[in-house]
Amino acid sequence: MKNKNTQRPHYNDGEKLAPWRESLHNIIFGSESALGKAFDIVLIISIVCSVLAVMLGSVTQIYLQYQDVLFYIEWFFTLLFTLEYTLRLISVRRPFRYALSFFGIVDFLSIIPTYLSFLFPSIKYMLVIRILRLLRVFRILKLTAYMGEAQTLMHALSKSWRKILVFLYTILTLVVIFGSLMYVVEGSSSGFTSIPKSVYWAVVTLTTVGYGDIAPQTPLGQMVAAFIMIMGYGIIAVPTGIYSAELIKTYKPERVNNNACPDCGETGHDFDADYCKYCGHNLESEG
After folding, report:
1. Is residue 282 part of a domain?
2. I want to staple 50 with a disulfide (CB 3.0 to 4.6 A). Which of 77, 181, 189, 220 is the partner?
3. How many Cβ atoms sit within 10 Å of the Cβ of residue 97?
4. What is the rounded distance in angstroms from the CA atom of residue 77 to the CA atom of residue 149?
5. Structural domain tally of the chain?
6. Whether the model pTM is above 0.70
7. 20 shares its domain with 120
8. CATH number of the domain enclosing 225
9. Is the Cβ–Cβ distance between 261 and 13 less than 8 Å?
10. Most distant CA atoms of the chain, gap in Å
């Protein structure tokens, strides 16, 4: 059976990047050349250092002592990643398509909090989202099999989301009913001061978390609580079963070609694909 990704799409394959953009693409998206490997290593180190700096900045003692240093470090990495993001857009044929891809969105979200911090100071701590950029390490270290497994997991999740949504609706209905019941049975004297707070208790109890900040005091309330706790153990297994069933249906061992498409920058193509399954451009294998 012919792979659908090998069928020639309606796309002008004669369109070529300028030589300097082609070279830039090979360095940024490739990992075979010495420059490509060096770029990836520097990128990984920069991401780790920037995330550590953000985390340390949330420690009051460290922030008060090294406030200026952390400020300059934050802006250094932000400008560095802004430059890198710009170069990524320049080095692909369809920048808008890359910008809307998963990694494109992550790249954008990893720099925008610093600029927004002028308006919302606390939002700068969301820079820890840069840790998602380390997902590129799977391609860099040639762990393509792991990327294929990740795609299998995501595909199974997309197939099971409707069933899980129905399950969540059922849970929402149960916690509202049980919360309202406990509000009637226990009342404000036991800490169930409102239906929303009682629903919060029902969520904590049904999920078997059990913070203990609110607890029933009457025998009837304790019986209802015990019933909810036992029910919780059975309910927790439901979404796991739904997802596992879809995962078994979805799983197909296959090799993955994880070279980045020169047009949109996407990875994770079938091993024998000649064309990108996202934009249809001819894949230019690195080796």
Report:
1. no
2. 77
3. 19
4. 32
5. 2
6. no
7. yes
8. 1.10.287.70
9. no
10. 79
CB 54, CB 128: distance < 8 Å:
yes
What is the model's pLDDT at position 203? 93
Q: In terms of Cα–Cα distance, which of 55, 179, 209 is closest to 128?
A: 55
Question: What CATH number did the domain enclosing 128 receive?
Answer: 1.20.120
pLDDT tens digits for 216-256? 999 999 999 999 999 888 887 788 788 787 777 766 555 55
The answer, yes or no, to whether residue 192 has pLDDT greater than 60, is yes
CA distance linking residue 16 with residue 79, whole number of Å:
29
Residue count (the chain): 287
Residues 6+ apart with CB under 8 A from 215: 190, 191, 225
Cα dihedral 270/271/272/277 (nearest 10): 30
* Contact assessment for residue 81 and residue 107, using Cβ atoms and an 8 Å cutoff: yes
* pLDDT value, residue 14: 44
